[in-house]
Amino acid sequence: xxxxxxxxxxxxxxxxxxxxxxxxxxxxxxxxxxxxxxxxxxxxxxxxxxxxxxxxxxxxxxxxxxxxxxxxxxxxxxxxxxxxxxxxxxxxxxxxxxxxxxxxxxxxxxxxxxxxxxxxxxxxxxxxxxxxxxxxxxxxxxxxxxxxxxxxxxxxxxxxxxxxxxxxxxxxxxxxxxxxxxxxxxxxxxxxxxxxxxxxxxxx
Length: 204
Prior knowledge:
Layout: E1 10-13, E2 16-19, H1 24-40, E3 69-71, E4 74-83, E5 88-97, H2 99-111, H3 122-140, H4 149-166, H5 174-187, H6 193-196
Antiparallel strand pairs: 1-2, 3-4, 4-5
Helix pairs in contact: 2-4, 4-5
């Protein structure tokens, strides 16, 4: 890239890379060159992950089979965005947390078995898990923060399950436990990282 394609912007992390071409022809030519160069090095491009993607948005309206891609836990695709200055909605090609990343975050919460840690208080859980939640928010909340809602909802639902096991009065009474946790989120909005960020919903 440095020797032969200095005019093409690109990004790389470990063995993942994204190259930004202006035309389909440029992309096809570059892909052929990369395949040849990799072959010279005894390597090959990943047959499934390597593809040419059309960055469709409100201005790019042509139809192509590939209109999105994943990179570093984000999915890049066309999304509705708001222009706050003009108070209008437009379609832009933007990143948001990927489905695989959200699945991994929910799996981590499940693996930690928070719902069964009745030996802990809610404050104990907050001290333990807030660094994890903060890391997710810092990284995946950089763009399209609202896309993280399913992760926060899952965590809030886990807290409800914890309350149902922790307190006898909530056994088999999910609605009561949900109202209990919702009230705590209102009286102690700074207890959990995502509550502080205003992402309190998901108790119903």
